[in-house]
Amino acid sequence: MTTQERERETAGRGRVEGVRTVFSGIQPSGDVQLGNYIGAIKGWVDRQEEKENYFCIVDLHALTVPQDPEELRFQTRSLAAMLFAAGLDPEKCTIFVQSHVTAHAEACWLLNCVTPIGWLERMTQYKSKAENQETISTGLLDYPVLMAGDILLYDAHEVPVGEDQRQHVELARDIAQRFNRIYGDTFVVPEGVIPEIGGRVMGLNDPSVKMSKSHAHIRGHAVRMLDDPKEIERSIKRAVTDNGNEIRFSDDPERAGVNNLLGIFKVLTGLDEAAVEAEFANARGYGDLKSRVAEVVIDALTPIRQRHEELMQDVDALDRLLEVGAERAEAVAGPKLDAVKELMGLTLTKR
Ligand code: TYM
Q1: Closest-CA residue to 38 (of 196, 192, 232)
Q2: 3-state percent breakdown (helix, strand, coil) of the chain, nearest 5
Q3: b vs e for 90-102, b when ≥16 Cβ sit within 10 Å of the residue's Cβ?
């Protein structure tokens, strides 16, 4: 499709008939960990053939908490390399950095003006992040509006994310609906796509909290995507379980550690629950479970780590890929933003 055709398709409402658009994002802050992979990246890779895909490295979101500028620059490239290394194909997906497409920041402002502040103050992630900050930036409160802008600029139908982002996607739906009510049918109302198993990978050291990038530096909390096999094995061997010996899926909070390890095994092997349990029918306790889980995690992550290292050798090539991604994203987001501005009365001459 030419850029002009694309502009026509996307500037107002509606896309190419029948093609579903997928948008998702990930922050370049801290170490990407297994939860990010299982809850999000793996699904993006597995389903990239089917749809029109946009995957965004959300550096503006990362700024909502303090960042070292050089570190942020490094993490942004490293995350791009990670997404390519994990198997996202630049021919099939548009992969770009959020701040390279200025429409995102502008859309955030426009949507701020139709979003009641109470909606933001209710967000659970805001409340828990704000608790740990001495000074809370306005950006931290506004974070979900920026995220809504990301999604709505592309008229995304589907937003594949982990469970922790469910509330933010719901908010993006609410904002889209409110905007459509005020200004007329403008945005596609997006749907969150959350994996049933793997949508919430828990911390290995504490299976009552989710595995997170911001805790990934704590020993034994996470498997980081770039950990070597020895480190992976060490973290999984140390994982908290319980004092039973039954290797079965379970909702019992007491058994969350074993359930978490089985969930990781299930997603990475692609087996169903019954087959996973059958795999461990003759296991000799949790030691066996941990060894097998470590094995499948190492098998999944080793090629990604190696490819990441190769890609990081040539940052110019990476930057060029990101430039192409930004151009393609801009061709969709730019005209959509213009249409929104016109609807809101910001362009003096109507088209
Ligand atoms: P971020 O960078 O925190 O996480 C990236 C993705 O990884 C998922 N995830 C997990 N999934 C399962 N188990 C876990 N322990 C786990 N930890 C993280 C997250 O749910 C997410 O899907 N606000 C978003 C980024 C964003 C975005 C967007 C996403 C910005 N704009 C637009 C979708 C659409 C975030 O901070 O993700």
Answers
A1: 196
A2: 55, 10, 35
A3: eeebbbbbbbbbe
Q: What is the DSSP string of 157-226?
A: SEEE--GGGHHHHHHHHHHHHHHHHHH-S-S---EEE--TTTSSPBPSS-TTSB--GGGTTSTTT--BTT
Higher pLDDT, 66 or 95: 95
Q: Which of 169, 128, 305 is nearest to 224 (CA)?
A: 305
Q: Whose CA is nearest to atom 28 of ligand 1?
A: 25
* 27 DSSP 8-state letter: -
Q: In what order do the strands lie in the sheet with 21-26?
A: 93-97, 52-57, 21-26, 158-160, 191-193
Alpha carbons 78 and 87: distance in angstroms, whole number: 14
307 vs 11, higher pLDDT:
307
**Ligand 1: nearest atom to the Cα of 212:** 17
Tell me, what's the pLDDT at 299?
Answer: 98
Residue type at 301 in one-letter notation: L
Atom number in ligand 1 closest to CA 164: 20
- 21, 33, 45, 58: residue to mutate for ligand 1 pocket, most atoms within 8 A of CB: 58
Q: How long is the chain?
A: 351
Nearest Cα neighbor of 104 from 157, 53, 145 is 145
Task: Please name the residue that has the structure tokens 């793997």.
Answer: 198
pLDDT over threshold 70, residue 160: yes
**Which tens digits make up the pLDDT trace of 87-140?**
999 999 999 999 999 999 999 999 999 999 999 999 999 998 888 778 899 999
For a pocket test of ligand 1, which of 158, 161, 163, 223 has the largest count of ligand atoms closer than 8 A to its C-beta?
Answer: 161
Q: Give pLDDT tens digits for 8-40.
A: 444 443 455 678 999 999 999 989 999 999 999
* Run of H or E including 23: strand 21-26
